[in-house]
Specification:
By secondary structure, the protein is an all-beta fold. 0% of the residues lie in helices and 48% in strands. The protein has no helices and 11 strands.
């Protein structure tokens, strides 16, 4: 079993920055792909950014490319999402996820991730 706990969400103004954190526990996560998803009421959970086990390669949704940066510190079992130039449309609950998939491509669909955190709310005002 793996437990994931997100933190760092809050209320910010458009153009501001925010950094989310995800703490993993239960077992080492240094061999697994991890990712951030987000969800708003009435919409499906959508992929934001993913990163492979060693941090060598990352993938981003077009909507956040150039503004968000995903990173990980495997020695501390931590995952981060640095969010810059935030927009009102970034408002959502952000979730940390872990995948056991061995495929080379970073999964972008929710059913490829086995463990999820409880989510942290990010609200961006205009």
């Amino acid at each position: 079993q793996v437990q994931l706990v997100e933190s760092g969400g809050g209320l910010v103004q458009a153009g501001d920055s925010l950094k989310l954190s995800c703490a993993a526990s239960g077992r080492p996560v240094n061999t697994y792909t991890m990712a951030w998803f987000r969800q708003t009421p009435g919409k499906e959970r959508e992929f934001v950014a993913g990163i492979i086990w060693n941090g060598e390669r990352a993938n981003y949704a077009d909507a956040v490319k150039g503004r968000f940066t995903i990173s990980r510190e495997n020695t501390n079992s931590m995952l981060y999402l640095q969010m810059n130039s935030l927009k009102p449309e970034d408002t959502a609950v952000y979730y940390c996820a872990l995948s056991w998939s061995l495929v080379a491509t970073i999964p972008i669909v929710t059913n490829e991730y086995e463990y999820w955190g409880q989510g942290t709310q990010v609200t961006v005002s205009s």
